[in-house]
Design brief:
Blueprint (H helix, E strand, L loop, with lengths): L3 E6 L2 E6 L2 E6 L8 E2 L9 E3 L34 E17 L8 E9 L6 E2 L1 E2 L2 E2 L2 E2 L8 E21 L8 E8 L4 E5 L4 E12 L1 E9 L5 E7 L5 E7 L2 E11 L4 E10 L9 E8 L2 E6 L2 E6 L7 E9 L17 E9 L2 E2 H6 L23 E3 L4 E5 L7 E8 L5 E8 L2 E8 L2 E8 L5 E7 L9 E8 L2 E6 L7 E3 L10 E4 L4 H4 L20 E8 L2 E2 L2 H5 L5 E3 L2 E2 L18 E4 L4 E4 L5 E2 L5 E2 L5 H6 L5 E5 L10 E6 L6 E3 L29 H8 L30 E2 L5 E2 L13 H5 L19
Antiparallel strand pairs: 1-2, 2-3, 4-13, 5-6, 6-12, 6-13, 7-8, 7-11, 7-12, 9-10, 14-25, 15-24, 16-21, 16-25, 17-18, 17-24, 18-19, 19-20, 21-22, 22-23, 25-26, 27-38, 27-41, 28-37, 28-40, 29-34, 29-38, 30-31, 30-37, 31-32, 32-33, 34-35, 35-36, 38-39, 42-43, 44-45, 46-47, 47-48, 49-50
Length: 756
């Protein structure tokens, strides 16, 4: 056994054994463990509140005793935070905490948020969940946590979750890490970067493409390259997921298209946070890595090279009018550290070495488009004010959630109520005016809106009219002309726990409330409008407007529990806020994660069960990666025969074929080559029979001519023998047995006779 390894890229090694190659990543780096917070000025530390001036956030430095010995807020509750501005983006690898010096104040548990801008915060995740760090149990001990994966940020925010039972919240901190720098390019949705090859055509055996991106858009082409032989590579966002398509070309002889299926990775990638992508390809072996999650694939067919013409574009499709574009959108957002086979694309663009003429205004900084999301859990709500005693309701917002049900908006009218809710994945609007003998409006729109994507809701109601619009689709907007009079109450409750809004002071439910849909909304909202005015959520956060309870402002911390997908064998993953489940319908597998095959592994196994000859599904590797497939089980003899069927009828007529006008028949089996190999490797005997019948049609052109007809094996090699013959002989069965009709030929077909 010989294993050959070679340097593949700066941080990768390629190892091959037989025809299987694996790309291994090697991480060698300098120690990233500098103290980042100690040297910062007091002004770099801010907080939600301060107990007194001696407890200011600037005193919250590890092992320091200045002021009152650390930071403490005015109130010890879950709305407090301590924030650090590192000045520029840094790579953060660890965090350490300490209680307030010589006191009974410390923090026993906390969360870590981070941001590039001091807005649109992202919670630190570990093991697929928002992580809570263990803090301190006294004032002096230092508790340090090395992050499972490093983060890059300028701003860090610590949210105390639990604190000393003997005192209050108290905190001193240190942040550990090192400098971080990367070339950044802002894409405006119009311009693309054209990386042109040194040669007009590139025949590429191996590729390494790496980049980071962030965007608030759910659609957009990140990179694209194509060739005249049908080769192409495209990386794009669709519905907030990352899609990779690679086609390694078309065989001009057989007209077979060999392509890699569309690879999908990630979700919720339109969160305007940085995401890291690495594509590594050597021949037909592909590693596709998104945010440290790697998928390994091997392309179909026999092609190893990616043949690209002229250029690779970043940020969109080339402006060439080629049909493959398919009306796709260009990428709008930011990219950094774009690297293609060792070339720093962002640096080349900065130095004007690449074509960027399609940009209206090329900038090398990230332009942030901020929408101020609000994150709701089961016990939270947001209250905003609108016009009172007005004869029209006009509200709008965007939401994203995994739950099929939940209250999105509730408002008490002067005499009745308005409720907008999510019911079975549809948005429903319900108005009940009690004074008019329970006059009601019930309209619904949309479907499957609990898919985790952002959805836009607009609702308008006035005298004898109401309209509900989903995702800006005016053509599908639902309208009603029900007789109704509207008088607003002036207060709007979004999401969550609305007990205060739903009950009168005497403790009895307010009239007109539809309690069937009062389950709390869990998810995110943004771009909230009341009376056609965009709500100032910054003022809400600062306590100058509205009210809220248990919401996380300026953050959307929704988690996709189906990514990565834990459902095996093509099982469909569905989720709620707290859990996921797998639907195994049509997969041939069962169990919580579709792991266990429902089929036997062989025809032999069916015979042991007492079954007779018939068509059966088998799964040769049980719960392995190979899927089940249909075979014919012949159990009439002592030995069981397994037949894999193909797509051709028993006889296929071919006429009019010539050297200039060849006829190609594609023989496809009902199983993949891997599945067939699983059968043959455990079989005592295996055979494949391909017969050729002829009339005035030469086959092998014997005794010394070039064969006119051949078949191609799985390794793309030509074979010139047919049923009854053997490899390498170039004779038909009659030639081997020396009983051909015309002894001058080694094959009856070569005699060019008029009968079959």
């Amino acid at each position: 056994m010989e294993i050959h390894c070679d340097v593949y890229a700066k941080s990768s090694v390629l190892c091959c054994f037989n025809n299987l190659c694996v790309i291994l990543s090697i991480h060698v780096s300098e120690k990233c463990d500098e103290a980042l917070a100690t040297s910062l000025p007091h002004s770099a530390f801010t907080s939600s509140s301060v107990f007194t001036s001696g407890y200011a956030p600037g005193y919250a430095k590890l092992n320091r005793r200045g002021g009152a010995g650390g930071w403490s807020p005015l109130d010890s509750d879950h709305y407090q935070w301590l924030q650090v501005d590192l000045g520029i983006r840094k790579q953060v690898t660890a965090i350490a905490t300490q209680g307030r010096y010589s006191s009974s104040d410390w923090t026993t548990r906390y969360r870590l948020l981070y941001s590039d801008t001091g807005r649109n915060w992202k919670p630190y995740h570990q093991d697929g969940n928002i992580w809570a760090f263990t803090g301190n149990s006294n004032t002096e001990s230092v508790v340090r946590h090395d992050l499972q994966h490093a983060i890059v940020a300028r701003y860090l925010r610590i949210i105390p979750l639990d604190w000393s039972e003997e005192g209050r919240i108290g905190l001193r901190i240190e942040i550990y890490g090192c400098p971080y720098w990367a070339d950044v390019i802002n894409f405006d949705g119009q311009g693309v970067i054209s990386y042109r090859f040194k040669m007009k055509k590139m025949k590429i055996l191996k590729d390494v493409i790496a980049l980071k991106f962030k965007t608030a858009e759910s659609e957009g082409v990140i990179l694209h390259g194509e060739g005249q032989q049908g080769d192409y590579i495209t990386l794009e966002l669709r519905r907030g997921r990352l899609l990779l398509q690679i086609n390694l070309g078309t065989d001009l002889h057989s007209s077979l298209i060999i392509r890699l299926p569309v690879l999908t990775s990630g979700s919720l990638l339109d969160d305007h946070h940085w995401h890291s992508v690495v594509i590594e390809r050597y021949r037909r072996n592909v590693n596709f890595t998104l945010d440290q999650h790697t998928q390994h694939f091997r392309t179909n067919g026999e092609f190893d090279h990616l043949d690209l013409d002229y250029e690779l574009t970043f940020g969109g499709m080339p402006y060439s009018g080629k049909p493959i574009s398919g009306g796709r959108r260009n990428f709008k957002g930011c990219m950094e550290s774009i690297n293609y086979n060792g070339d720093n694309i962002t640096d080349l663009a900065r130095r004007k070495k690449l074509d960027t003429s399609s940009f209206r205004n090329l900038t090398f900084s990230c332009v942030d488009s901020h929408t101020f999301p609000v994150f709701f859990n089961a016990t939270s709500f947001l209250q905003l004010s609108g016009r009172r005693e007005h004869n029209m309701v006009s509200v709008g917002f965007q939401f994203r959630t995994w739950n099929p049900n939940g209250l999105l908006l509730f408002s008490s009218l002067a005499d009745g109520m308005l409720e907008i809710a999510l019911n079975d994945g549809k948005v429903t609007a319900h108005i009940n005016v009690t004074q008019q003998k329970n006059s009601r409006v019930d309209i619904a729109s949309g479907s499957g809106l609990n898919d985790g994507e952002w959805h836009d809701v607009r609702f308008l109601a006035k005298e004898n009219f109401a309209m509900l619009t989903i995702d800006g689709d005016e053509a599908s907007a639902v309208r009603t002309n029900a007789p109704i009079q509207i008088t607003t109450g002036g207060t709007y409750h979004f999401g969550g726990n609305l007990s205060a809004a739903l009950y009168a002071p005497d403790g009895l439910p307010k009239p007109g409330c539809n309690y069937q849909s009062m389950r709390s909304f869990q998810g995110c909202m943004q771009l909230i409008q009341v009376d056609d005015q965009l709500a100032d959520l910054t003022a809400v956060e600062q306590g100058r407007l509205g009210a809220f309870e248990n919401v996380s402002l300026d953050m959307c911390a929704i988690i996709d529990r189906c990514m990565p997908n834990h459902c095996e064998h093509g099982g469909r993953c569905t989720q709620t806020w707290n859990s996921f489940s797998c639907s195994c319908d049509g997969t041939g597998y069962t169990g919580a994660t579709c792991h266990t095959s429902v089929y036997e592994q062989s025809c032999e196994a069916y015979k042991h069960l007492g079954r007779s000859s018939d068509l059966y599904w088998i799964d040769p590797d049980g719960s392995g990666s190979l899927g089940p497939f249909k075979v014919i089980c012949n159990m009439t003899e002592d030995k069981v025969w397994t037949t894999v069927v193909n797509n051709l009828p028993a006889q296929t007529s071919v006429t009019g074929s010539s050297r200039e006008r060849r006829t190609v028949l594609q023989l496809n089996y009902s199983a993949t080559m891997e599945q067939i190999s699983a059968i043959t490797s455990s079989a005592e005997h295996c055979e494949q029979h391909v017969a050729y019948s002829c009339r005035m049609s030469r086959l092998l052109n014997t005794p010394d001519g070039t064969p006119y007809t051949w078949w191609v094996g799985r390794a793309n090699e030509k074979h010139f023998y047919w049923g009854g013959s053997a490899p390498g002989i170039q004779k038909c069965a009659c030639g081997i047995e020396r009983n051909c009709t015309d002894p001058k030929y080694h094959c009856n077909c070569d005699a060019d006779q008029k009968q079959w």
